[in-house]
Design a protein that fits this description.
about 0% strand, 10 helices, globular
Length: about 270
């Protein structure tokens, strides 16, 4: 037990709280760009095995970091679980999606999971990449976890958009169905955990759509205060639909431009008569 306590103390090592667009943040931005470029440019002999490796490396490392974060935030000699940090937010679902997809053969459900990571969870990853200020704390391990979770997910999402996912409304529908499934699970957890009476005054707000706590997300928190909860919930679901739909549209345009450039490049390679 003493060794365990010392390990927890070591993992709780504190630093000066990082700031957006300073060295810590910029390091992870650069690492994300380089990783994305390497993932897309590499030409594997076995593409299926390559995909499994990407999903496995990201999912397992992110899971280990998540478990470590949960432990150091909840143990200080005695165990007091921090319910507000429970790992079932939109930004943590890529961990579950990648690990589930890792053990599935190619098929509709796996395709839907990959599309979900490409079109939907990329929204949270990109938002954190641009402005991670509210995610940073003074604990080094938690900051590393935050940036690996989001920057790693962003790199995987971009790879999936470039190489694996069909850029179509059909794929988008599958992705959005997975989102609805995760949102339903989150809401069930919100209701069940709240009504067990175990929170002891803590907040438990998975996907930030609990009927018992105000969402901390900008705009949505104002909507939740102003309208009945069902209207707020529909607004949230519709906002994600619009955001992920925009990702689809942008990806479609990029794919169209890239295919045009490739066509011109191939024409130049044809022998002239």
């Amino acid at each position: 037990m003493e060794i365990f306590t010392r390990l927890i103390i070591a993992l709780q090592y504190e630093i000066e709280r990082p700031k957006s667009w300073h060295s810590f943040h910029l390091f992870w931005i650069g690492l994300c760009i380089l990783t994305t470029y390497a993932l897309i440019r590499y030409k594997p002999k076995d593409r299926e095995r390559y995909l499994k490796t990407i999903l496995g490396v990201y999912g397992i490392i992110a899971l280990v970091l998540e478990i470590s974060k949960q432990i150091i935030w909840s143990y200080d000699g005695t165990w007091h679980y921090q319910w507000y940090s429970a790992p079932f937010q939109l930004c943590t679902t890529p961990v579950f999606a990648s690990l589930i997809a890792l053990f599935l053969r190619k098929g509709k459900f796996r395709d839907h999971l990959l599309s979900y990571m490409a079109f939907v969870t990329i929204l949270g990853s990109f938002a954190t990449a641009v402005y991670p200020e509210t995610c940073f704390v003074r604990t080094l391990l938690v900051d590393v976890h935050t940036m690996f979770l989001h920057m790693g997910s962003l790199a995987v999402s971009l790879y999936l958009l470039a190489k694996e996912v069909d850029i179509s409304w059909k794929s988008f529908r599958g992705a959005y169905c997975v989102f609805l499934m995760f949102a339903f699970i989150a809401e069930m957890l919100n209701v069940i955990v709240y009504n067990t009476g175990t929170l002891n005054g803590q907040t438990f707000n998975m996907f930030y759509i609990s009927p018992y706590f105000i969402s901390p997300l900008p705009v949505l928190n104002a909507i939740q205060r102003a309208v009945p909860f069902p209207v707020f919930l529909m607004s949230y679901l519709y906002a994600v639909f619009l955001g992920s739909g925009l990702v689809l549209i942008i990806a479609s345009r990029v794919k169209l431009i890239a295919s045009g450039k490739n066509l011109q490049h191939n024409k130049r390679k044809l022998p002239q008569h």
